[in-house]
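Here is one chain, start to finish.
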Amino acid sequence: MELPPNVRLNDDAGLVEKLRNAMAKNGGFCPCRILRTPDNLCICREFREQIADPGFSGFCHCKLYYKEK
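Its structure:
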């Protein structure tokens, strides 16, 4: 998935690598979520909704992505 211009990866390369490895092992699901549902595929539904909110800035739940205003 292509990221919107105001969304970037976490600056912590070690964390990014750890999270991407975890997602590769679990079929692309957010490693912070217990349930493997379509809503929890990375980029998860929660963060997609946060991206759509013009007033939101901050990290996604697992801290892989950061959205700037």
